[in-house]
Each structure stands twice: as structure tokens, then as C-alpha cells.
Design a protein that fits this description.
alpha+beta; 8 helices; 3 domains; 5-stranded mixed β-barrel; rod-shaped; 10% strand; OB fold (Dihydrolipoamide Acetyltransferase, E2P); 355 residues
Length: 355
């Protein structure tokens, strides 16, 4: 009997040790069981009876503790799983939100691009209609010949109306290279708009045109002429002098005004003197030689009234060479001058024996 109790006690101790390793409650139960076993070993009946209840309570505590441990582990695992799922859901929500925002931005960008494309097309259409209303021709400049002459992509050569830049090709005048470089910088490879005045071409078959860098809203508005017309730009910045030839006089007054402004400031070619460096409308006027008919004759046989004969028509003047011509006309002469001769106009620019 005693052996059976010992075995039972040993089993109980091992069980309680195993259970006690799980939870604190099982440890408490283990202590109660040990205390009960101690009283069981006592000889007094009262203590033995009391020890039995203690062992029972201790074992119950161990069992409850053992049962509670798995429950806590399950709760812990459940909580961890819930947290993990919550994190995954939050991450998924963030990714979804980011994807929606990206899609919204892409759609917004696409709409903005489409809107800009439509607005650009409308602006180009309006510009084309405005240009057509003024008779402007859109062209592409392929190369610059000199400061006041360019060649277009289609091969046409264009001479700027109303202005004259210093020469930089067959001969060189002061500030000619600067004018040519400026025109190259502003026009070469660029789209511009051509405006015709009256004449279509000159005697060299160059097209005579005004050059607009932008389509103006009003071709006779001074502010637009100043800011958008390249002919005016050349004069305002001292790269050209005004040079008017009839019948192309639409903007001659503006060009004269702009040239006076540039001359007063000593801008560009005007820094070399009050007459600039090339021929133009602000140069001193040359007196033209003309042969005159005989003066007034009076007839003593008539009533004494005088009659004056009209001056004879201007006659052609002849000079052997430019040396002789410039003694009389230091700045040379234009093609409509009586002293003009093709042999004196070596560069074929319509001006003979110019400096």
C-alpha cells in the first residue's frame, strides 16, 4: 500500500513539474501538492485528511494553469495574426491609394496635354487667319547673305524694304560684319512672316519685303512695329540706316524716327559719326547738277513785259571713273541720279561709287 502511494506521489510530482513549467498558476498548484504530500507523510489522521484536500486543490490548480497556457498562446497567436493582417491591409490600402493617385495624376496630365494641344491648334489657326488678313506670308529663312538680305528655304532671295545695313560681302563697311552676324542670329533657321509694300522685286530679282518676327495684331501700330518687325529692329539697334525708295514708303516715317533715336544715343553704326557708316535717308542731301536753258530775255521792241524761259530737262552727267565722280559727289550717287552709270556700280546694288 505504501509502495502504491509512493508511486502515485512520484507520478503526481512529475506531472505537476511538467505542468508547472507552463504557467505560474501551475507552479502555485505544484507547491500546494508538495505541501499536501508532506502532510500525507505525517502519522496523524487529521493532517492526512487535510493533506488530501491540499493535494486535490494543487492538482486542480496545475490542471487549470495548464489549460490556461494554451489559451493565452492561442490569444497571443490570434493577436499577432490580427496585427499582421491589419498591417497587410494597411499596406494594401496605401498601395491602392498610391495607384489611384498615380492614375489620377496621369489622367490629369493627359487632359492637360490634350487641352494644351487644342489651345495650340486654335492659336495657330487664329494666327494664320490674322496673317492672311494682313497678306503676310509665312516662310523659313535658310541662310543670311548679309545684314539686309536673306535666302529662303524655297531658294528665293529677300531684300529688306526701307533699310540699308553696312556692306559685308563684296566690300566691307564699318559695322557690316556686326549687322550680318545680328541678322544671322535673329533669322537663320527661323520662321518669319513677309509683308509686301508695293514693289514685288528689285532689278536683281530679289523680293522686296518687310520681315515680321511675330504676327502683329495691327501692322500700323508703332509698338508692334518696334517689337515685332525686324526691319525696325535693325534701325532701332543701330545695325541699319533708313533707306527709302519709292513707291515702298509705308513705314518710312517710322524708320526715320527710329533712326534719329538711335543716332541720338550713338547706337551701333551711329557711334562712328552723325552720318553712320553707310548710305541712308539721314545723310546730307547732295545737290544735283543740271544744265539750264538760257536766262530771261527781254525784247526792247515789245511792251516791256519780261518772259522767262523754263529750265531745260535734267541731262545725263558723265564721269570717267569714280575718282572724278566722288570729287563732285563724295558719297556716290543712286541709280536715279543723272551721274549714275552701271560701270561705276561694281556691286550692282543701285548705288555708284559709294564709300
Amino acid at each position: 500500500m505504501k509502495e502504491s502511494r509512493r508511486n502515485l506521489a512520484a507520478i503526481a510530482i512529475i506531472f505537476t513539474l511538467l505542468m508547472a513549467m507552463i504557467t505560474p498558476l501551475a507552479w502555485v498548484g505544484l507547491l500546494i501538492v508538495v505541501f499536501g504530500l508532506y502532510h500525507t507523510s505525517q502519522k496523524r489522521k487529521v493532517k492526512r485528511a487535510y493533506a488530501g484536500w491540499m493535494i486535490t486543490v494543487g492538482i486542480l490548480g496545475i490542471v487549470l494553469g495548464g489549460c490556461a497556457a494554451p489559451t493565452k498562446e492561442v490569444e497571443k497567436e490570434t493577436t499577432a495574426q490580427a496585427d499582421k493582417e491589419a498591417d497587410q491591409q494597411a499596406k494594401a490600402d496605401e498601395e491602392k491609394k498610391a495607384a489611384e493617385e498615380k492614375k489620377a495624376k496621369e489622367e490629369e496630365k493627359k487632359l492637360a496635354e490634350e487641352k494644351a494641344k487644342v489651345e495650340k491648334a486654335e492659336a495657330e489657326k487664329a494666327q494664320q487667319e490674322l496673317a492672311e488678313s494682313f497678306g503676310l506670308e509665312e516662310v523659313l529663312v535658310s541662310r543670311v547673305i548679309d545684314g539686309d538680305t536673306v535666302e529662303l528655304k524655297d531658294g528665293r532671295k529677300v531684300r529688306f524694304i526701307g533699310v540699308n545695313t553696312p556692306e559685308s560681302t563684296t566690300r566691307t563697311e564699318e559695322y557690316g560684319k556686326e549687322a550680318s552676324n545680328y541678322t544671322t542670329e535673329k533669322l537663320e533657321g527661323k520662321t518669319v512672316w513677309l509683308q509686301k509694300d508695293v514693289s514685288d522685286t528689285d532689278r536683281y530679282n530679289r523680293y522686296l519685303r518687310l520681315i515680321w518676327l511675330e504676327v502683329p495684331k495691327d501692322v500700323m501700330n508703332e509698338e508692334e512695329i518696334r517689337t515685332k518687325m525686324f526691319n525696325a529692329d535693325l534701325v532701332l539697334n543701330g545695325y541699319a540706316e533708313p533707306s527709302t525708295y519709292n513707291p515702298d514708303v509705308m513705314y518710312s516715317e517710322y524708320f526715320m524716327k527710329f533712326a534719329r533715336e538711335a543716332r541720338e544715343k550713338g547706337t551701333g553704326l551711329w557711334a562712328y559719326g552723325e552720318n553712320g557708316t553707310t548710305k541712308g535717308d539721314l545723310d546730307p542731301k547732295e545737290e544735283k547738277k543740271a544744265s539750264t536753258a538760257s536766262t530771261t530775255s527781254k525784247s526792247s521792241n515789245e511792251s516791256g513785259t519780261a518772259s522767262e524761259e523754263p529750265a531745260a530737262a535734267t541731262q545725263q552727267e558723265f564721269y570717267q571713273n569714280c575718282t572724278e565722280l566722288t570729287k563732285v559727289y563724295p558719297h556716290g550717287v543712286a541709280s536715279d541720279h543723272p551721274a549714275y552709270a552701271k560701270k561705276h556700280d561694281r556691286d550692282k546694288d543701285g548705288w555708284a561709287c559709294e564709300r
